[in-house]
Amino acid sequence: MAKIQVDEKKIEEVLSRGVEKIYPNKETLKKQLLSGERIRLYCGFDPSADALHIGNAIALNKLSQLQELGHEVIFLIGDFTGMIGDPTDKSAARQKMSRKEVLDNSKLYKKQASAYLRFSGANPAKVMYNSKWSDKMSFKDLIEVSSNFTVQQMIQRDMFQERIKNEQPIYLHEFLYPLAQGYDSVAMDVDLEVGGNDQMFNMMCGRDLQKAINNKEKFVLTTKLLADDSGKKMGKSEGNAVFLNQEPADMYGAVMSWTDGVIGLGLELATKMPLDEVKEIQAQLKNDSVNPRDLKMKLAYEITALAHGEKAAKKAQEQFVKTFQKKDVPDEIETKNMEQGTWNIVELLNETGLVNSKGEARRLIKQGGIKVDGKVVSDDKQEVDLSQEKLIQRGKRQFLRVIKN
Prior knowledge:
Layout: H1 8-14, E1 19-23, H2 26-34, E2 40-45, H3 54-68, E3 72-77, H4 81-84, H5 99-105, H6 109-113, E4 126-129, H7 131-134, H8 139-146, H9 151-155, H10 158-165, H11 172-188, E5 192-196, H12 200-214, E6 219-223, H13 248-256, H14 263-270, H15 275-287, H16 292-308, H17 310-325, E7 335-338, E8 342-344, H18 345-352, H19 358-366, E9 370-372, E10 375-376, E11 383-385, E12 390-394, E13 398-404
Parallel strand pairs: 2-3, 2-5, 3-4, 5-6, 7-13
Antiparallel strand pairs: 1-6, 8-11, 9-10, 9-12, 12-13
Helix pairs in contact: 11-12, 13-16, 13-17, 14-15, 14-16, 16-17
């Protein structure tokens, strides 16, 4: 069994770096970690896509920090809950998925998570699937579990209130999702659950169930969400997610497309950079003593190096510098104003006049002849977020800078 570290400074950093809230409170959890007793903790990942993304990496980073202290970490794949679909922050019901779909999506999750967690050697993280217990629940079991909650508790959630106001349906299985996630805590008998702040309701349901069924306290630690200064999140719903299976150059370029307001928080949440260095950079950002572009390159490098290694990150950075800083891009580029929002790449190419037809746009994409911010577009269904400036390239010499109205 791994030796438990009780260094107060390290524990304090784990409980403060990137942390939004701790339930019931930080002091009680800190006391528990200082006791030297090994705790069991987890974070669940529903396979709604075939790759983990940078938002998942924030939770993985926190799991990693607790793993380094010697505690037992469970990497839970939600092959049961993923079929239901988490309604959190959704204005409409998610499309239900089959078991085959969620298992296919999760095939490479362990490999991607290994950029942050150790799955071998000393104190390895465990991979578990919540179908192991949820598939075995009877209708009687479901009634017993659901008796711990009220309809009022579920319906008070913001997204449900919004749907009621807009006369949109709320399906019963969406009510049951927090129960299914909450029961994971009971089945694994955990001491702590880690997740993004947007998962607080679901995690607190697990806390209630752990107390009611196992008569045991469960701590809940929520992390900050990666967002810019305006509060806009970096993620799938905003069309600016960075996936952990992206090629190094694409990953590096995607981070470089983020707004400057993400830099400080990104370094704190999604990298393993020492906290003292992170705080120094955050201070530099506030007093404008350094070009934000250089600091963003540091963020892009750190994230890419975690996922792909130092060699690949260095190559991605060199490619970015060659393309964007050594002026392989012309000094003078035509600029076009477009309506802010998320555009399909084919529609955008057609509206900007870079192509003569949508058919031509699709042919060019298929041939690898279109780039957005230096990244080759390979899917004609790709969405382009115009909340910030984009550089579109057709072939080797035709460039267009698109800015929002």
